[in-house]
Amino acid sequence: MRTLKLASLTALAAGVMMAGSALADPITIKFSHVVAPNTPKGQMAEKFKELVEESSVGDQVDVEVYPNSQLYGDDQVLEAMLLGDVQLAAPALSKFQKYTKQLQVFDLPFLFKDMDAVERFQNSETGQKLLTSLEPKGLIGLGYLHNGMKQLSASEPLRVPSDAAGKKFRIMTSDVLEAQFEAVDAAPLKKPFSEVFMLLQTDAIDGQENTYSNIYSQKFYEVQPYITESNHGLLDYMVVSSARFWNDLPDDVRPVVEKALDQAIAYGNDIAAQENQEAKQAIIDSGKSEIIDLTPEQRQQWVDAMKPVWDQFSDEIGQDVIDAARAANNEG
Ligand code: LMR
């Protein structure tokens, strides 16, 4: 009898200790991204960490931010997420084609007239539905994050599409972007973001497309003497988590974390345009890269050369999705 009592007391004590340690263990959210901290995405990630720390769940949730592909490149991060090794990421919308074809709409060249149109489309019923397009793969879309419009950088001036012919351009892992460069007889190469500087520096490639904030913070402008302000395509992100991780967050924690994320995304979206403007000015001030403005006629040549790409992908994306995105241009 006495032994039995002792045994059950020991079991009880062990149970209490286990419950205690489970309570004390913080939930870790590793946020992995590929850009520098001084970019819209880098700033948004830091803001999210700060807001969670200040919140009512600050002692239960630990946010760790890993910038500059320190933890994963965009080609591995979603797989790592599904394995539970990382909990948050915000890859470019161009990097999801293995998981869904619909998000390819965002890559269509010259689709959005400005960032207000992008915002309207993302907030529309179709745009919001696209946030759920990754769910069959176990990923949950938590919001869109802006960077901005892409520009073309190169080792030689690009004014008309024939200037790009025969040149090698690094692209993200997107068949639409591949078709876009093939449409001007250039040679696109799908490469991770972390390799771009080295590829440019060693002349393994001639150019690339990106926003001013990425061109500046990754120092591409130091090895690319020309940047054509083409605004030909969009670089935006989707903030994602694994559905399993997100839905398993305790009921008193998830809404607080979600609110912090929404606020951080709103903050990132607010500063994105200014970050790009400041990066452009810093590039001009450096004197290392010349920014080329296109005449309306020159720009129209790029539009005429690249727009046929839309038809190549309308079946995969869905004509209704493309039409909804186009409609957002006229609602402003
Ligand atoms: C790129 O690979 O060029 C971009 O997706 C990097 C980023 O996340 O802005």
Automatic annotation (TrEMBL):
Task: Alphabetically list the UniProt keywords.
Answer: Signal, Transport
Gene3D superfamilies noted in UniProt: Bacterial extracellular solute-binding protein, family 7
Tell me which Pfam families the record gives.
Answer: DctP
Q: In which domain of life is the source organism classified?
A: Bacteria
Q: Which residues form the signal peptide?
A: 1-24
| PANTHER family, alphabetized | C4-DICARBOXYLATE-BINDING PROTEIN DCTB (PTHR33376:SF7), PTHR33376
Instruction: Give the family this protein belongs to, as stated in its UniProt record.
Output: Belongs to the bacterial solute-binding protein 7 family.
* Record-given protein name: TRAP transporter substrate-binding protein
Tell me which species this is from. Modicisalibacter tunisiensis
**Lineage summary:** Bacteria, Pseudomonadati, Pseudomonadota, Gammaproteobacteria, Oceanospirillales
